[in-house]
Amino acid sequence: MLELDSLSITYRITGGEVPAVRGVSLSVAAGEAVGLAGESGSGKSTIALSLLRLLPRTARLDGRILLDGDDVLAMKWGRLRAVRWSTASIVFQGAQHGLNPVRRVGEQIAEPLLVHKLASGAAAERRVRELLEQVGLPAWRARSYPHELSGGQRQRVMIAMALACSPRLIIADEPTTALDLMVQAQVLTLIRELIASHGISLLMISHDLSVLAEVCDRLAVMYAGRLVETGPSDSPFEHPYSRALSAAFPTVGDPASRLAPRGLAGDPPDPQSLPGGCAFHPRCPAVQETCSTTPIDLRPAGPDRQAACVLVEEKC
Ligand SMILES: Nc1ncnc2c1ncn2[C@@H]1O[C@H](COP(=O)(O)OP(=O)(O)OP(=O)(O)O)[C@@H](O)[C@H]1O
User: Fold this and answer.
1) pTM of this prediction?
2) What family does this belong to (predicted)?
3) What is the pLDDT of residues 74-95, one digit of tens each?
4) Residue closest by Cα to atom 17 of ligand 1
5) Does any ligand 1 atom lie closer than 6 A to the CB of residue 46?
6) Ligand 1 centroid vs 9 CA: distance in angstroms?
């Protein structure tokens, strides 16, 4: 459904460049849910925005993005407009900011239907009511303004909007970050049920691996613009960064889970002055002599798992 092939994205800024994404290859099969994790600044949102060409003009992209076999970077404007919402749609970070405060939510959910000429008038109203019910809101909420809804309800509206044109892929960028833990768990359950019942593919982005593991079949972990690990969500991580990241969050909905006694020390590197070798080596609890000099690519690290770490090489 989605294939990223050696995708690199660099932002031009005054007096320099920011290499935000460096050679990422990743795929999402039809009906599959893939989670993309990493700390703030690792390049996750840059990837999300690139998938439907929503990046600013200062971004330079290399590599390929194939959406259902179509090369997104080569698409003409008309084709791109047709693909947005109908083949793939995005649920953005922070529901509060995604909705127009002066329009009723029903009108906003109907907008993609009208733009894509899929329904209008009474048929569009019927579809809006159906979508609201699918995301667990009563149909009369179509007449509400965003400020009359809670954060969780607004995020449900965003999900209804993303579903409106029956897309085959949903890209969800931190869909639950602004919500409290209980509402977060409800919205995650809703996403999981909707994608399973509609056979939709999902690329879900979060800094919180426990959130992704709730919903996704496969997880990919980014550090400083590169993928450091990919693998099934039900088998343990091999890369020291993925392990540290997963230990940094308690499990959603499991009050018995505890944070690791030692979090991940240090800060992610500035993309403009990345450390040599493996970019994670200055923070790595298992750092080896060669890590500061030898760059390392993804390599087999178990059944259907790849990790970019010398320790994995020693294990294999
Ligand atoms: N428009 C831009 N111009 C210049 N640099 C940018 C721009 N947008 C993002 N960046 C830089 O690109 C890098 C990746 O940012 P990005 O927002 O993709 O990371 P992220 O993993 O999504 O972080 P977060 O979880 O905080 O949203 C960061 O160093 C960021 O400062």
Assistant:
1) 0.92
2) Belongs to the ABC transporter superfamily.
3) 999 999 998 998 899 998 877 6
4) 45
5) yes
6) 11
The atom number, within ligand 1, closest to the CA of 42 reads 21
Q: How far away, in angstroms, is 18 Cα from ligand 1 center?
A: 9
| Direct distance between the N- and C-terminal alpha carbons of the chain, in angstroms, rounded to an integer | 31
Asked if the model's pLDDT at residue 259 lies above 60, the reply is no
Does the CB atom of residue 45 touch ligand 1 within 6 A?
yes
Q: Are 160 and 98 in contact (CB under 8 A)?
A: no
Ligand 1 pocket check for 50: Cβ under 6 Å: no
Q: Is the CB of 37 under 6 A from ligand 1?
A: no
- Fold for the domain defined by 2-233: Rossmann fold (3.40.50)
- CA 72, 92, 145, 139 dihedral sign is positive
